[in-house]
């Protein structure tokens, strides 16, 4: 989805996100900035909850209530040497912009994008265009290498010198994949996706433990040194509203989907 | 003034204090002694001509009274509700010593409400000065600075990071203490003075510091929105909130009306709130309205509670249970909160604030059953923007160093409110913003 938001587009950098509120009764949700073109920014999301489901029904020309950003710190991109940029599932959304900036900074860029199956694989062309080398993995073997990005990364680490790694994906995938670089002592960034409210450092909903300290992902991150992140606490906190999320989707399907009551809350 | 009957189960977010009727306002105004040297005005951080507006109420000139107040204060309906008058104007009233002071706060509120219902009039705006001023933050300090500067003829743009203006008036103070339609109405007035408010703009991100400093002057009213956490074990369990988050979810995002509104909040059957200030009272009273049994834990004695007495009374009346001289040391639970372990505190020698210093009584640990735990132990200044302007000198606690006029250590940049003074009250923020606005105006005119 491309969103026209000049104040966001003008300043957006790799690794940053925006917060949107879809409609007047909406929640604020963070979405990573996937690309920038003129006054517009691209976000990619999977329809998994009330808000993303609503977003997926929007058409060209529709307006969101609010868009704020760019938020968070940009990726710490410099000339490291050889860098690997890994995207898992919808996390691939963030990888081309990181890969491009890394390339522009003079790095040799290797991309690894992985998904459950080939239907869920996105932005392959963009990654192929920007990366010096690109590996594709699927969990079911329907495309590319049958297996996980972690295995490809492990192989790369064995074969050559890797200087820096970015991993963006579901928390469990980032946890597993970043464990691969740990014994090699390779600087590894992960982009954390905890629950946020304001996204500006005011509420502490997105607090994560990094190196034993409490950090706010919205202003201190969202990218952190993977080897210092407490992923288990992150995953536990991500599940805080599972029941409410289910209730919200049910409510949406009843009031927003069937049309029998006019979908008054939209 | 009337409140809800004590002990009543409160489930709605309607305003508790219903205000004065016109007849009662006139009667109350007639109590004013019309002192030759009024002490009440000295007690007001924005210097409202209190005897003059009270006189106008006594003469039933309510519109005139509103105009008098608005010479010095563009947010009277807000201040009439949330100012700690007992330690300011009313505390300084000569009648305070004899019987009870004139209810200045209630009168201010009456006048403002009367005007809102009968049509607002705007103060005069000076001809355009040709100068542009950026105001960062649309809380009490930002709104006051913006209104003052707009009246003086400057082109003012306010940058607000959230999707609604008002800062703590909107996300922090609950509806039952400060109805949001009143906040919106007073902000509307500020906008009618010519102030432009740009929502969803986080300065430092949506606007670069260079873009900010390209204005002829800058006022920083970024507030104290950074919640402090206790740093105790179990703090990241599901069900633990900062008061900021809990209040923002309900006040700004309307989580009390989930799923009609999308944002959820854990309601909690047993809620423990730690802290003793107004924010702690707000959080406890919101939690009560969401249906929980609420226990407020405070480390000093009841008489040391920093919250306004009226807020403590309201919390008690609504069934909040107070456990004083105690402090949480651990949050217990698997994934979600199950209990809060506290320790009793004994009061030792007075500290620099003149209050007894609490210290843990070893072995006195006890558990309070809880599924929601809210920390309301204070907030610090928002560090994001100020850390991006390295020439801005900060004190140890992160507050900006400013002079008596609110001038920071960076040329053309002024600050007021909590970011300069440390967490304080709405009216202190407004008072410091007013001073800074006057200084900005002087600077711009001298050029």
For this entry, give a set of tags:
heterodimer, A: 266 residues, alpha/beta, seven-stranded mixed beta sheet, three-stranded antiparallel beta sheet, 9 helices, 29% helix, 26% strand, globular, disordered C terminus, B: 447 residues, five-stranded parallel beta sheet, 35% helix, disordered N terminus
Strand order, largest beta sheet of chain A: 10-9-8-7-11-12-15
Q: Could you spell the SSE succession of chain A in H and E letters? A: EHEEEEHEEHEHEEHEHEEEHEHH
Give the fraction of residues assigned to helices of chain A: 25-40%
Structural class of chain B: alpha/beta
Instruction: Kindly provide the radius of gyration of chain B, computed on alpha-carbon positions and rounded to a whole number of angstroms.
Output: 22 Å
| Arithmetic mean pLDDT of chain B | 93
| Helicity of chain B, as a percent range | 25-40%
Q: Poorly predicted ranges of chain B (pLDDT <50, ≥5 residues)?
A: 1-6
- The count of DSSP E runs of length 2 or more, i.e. the number of strands of chain B, is 16
